[in-house]
């Protein structure tokens, strides 16, 4: 498991979502100290590399929904093993836009979040965050355009659930980190006290 926070500045290490090897949740890289991200910590279960990446793609595009329970179990173990990490008050998945949800038929992040919430004993709010602007997949966008692509894409359905609370955001893969950073910034604008990313797989350092 890796834990780290990412730098949200354009042209920065955020474009590679670099993890700190062997880091604990309180550690920051030097770049993150200069340009703090909107979220407070990212906890992951695995590197997005062979063979894990193929399993993630099977869940995401191959309707292998049974894999979500496995990913959730591994992510739960990674979270519970993280020294000093305080569980969020609630979990929510990274939302898909209506068009992409209709095309795919399910949100893979929600499929992971459901068993993860049960495993951690944390309330799940599937519709807390909505994607109010359809965006291109971040993986298809040039690194220098990713922030522009995702800016203003999210809205909070019930700000009262967010105010003063620790929110856990669940995702399947973290690549550039900009989607999660934009989402965390939206939560913080609505009063979230802390935002933790709980991500199954993360792009490893190059």
UniProtKB/TrEMBL annotation:
Domain of life: Bacteria
InterPro entries reported for this sequence: ComF/GntX_DNA_util-trans, PRTase-like, PRTase_dom
Pfam families named in the record: Pribosyltran
Residues of the Phosphoribosyltransferase domain: 109-201
Entry's family note: Belongs to the ComF/GntX family.
Name of this chain's protein: ComF family protein
Species: Duganella aceris
Native organism taxonomy: Bacteria, Pseudomonadati, Pseudomonadota, Betaproteobacteria, Burkholderiales
């Amino acid at each position: 498991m890796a834990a780290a926070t990412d730098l949200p500045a354009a042209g920065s290490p955020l474009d590679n979502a670099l993890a700190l090897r062997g880091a604990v949740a309180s550690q920051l890289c030097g770049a993150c100290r200069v340009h703090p991200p909107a979220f407070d910590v990212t906890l992951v279960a695995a590197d997005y590399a062979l063979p894990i990446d193929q399993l993630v793609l099977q869940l995401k595009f191959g309707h292998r929904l049974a894999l979500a329970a496995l990913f959730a179990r591994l992510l739960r173990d990674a979270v519970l093993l993280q020294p000093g990490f305080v569980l969020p008050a609630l979990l929510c998945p990274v939302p898909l836009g209506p068009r992409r949800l209709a095309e795919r038929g399910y949100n893979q992040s929600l499929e992971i979040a459901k068993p993860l919430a049960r495993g951690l004993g944390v309330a799940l709010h599937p519709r807390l965050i909505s994607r109010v602007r359809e965006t291109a997949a971040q993986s298809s966008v040039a690194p220098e355009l990713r922030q522009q692509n995702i800016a203003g894409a999210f809205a909070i359905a019930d700000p009262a659930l967010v105010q003063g609370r620790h929110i856990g955001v669940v995702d399947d893969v973290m690549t550039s980190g900009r989607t999660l950073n934009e989402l965390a910034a939206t939560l913080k604008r609505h009063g979230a006290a802390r935002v933790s990313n709980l991500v199954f797989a993360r792009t490893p350092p190059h």
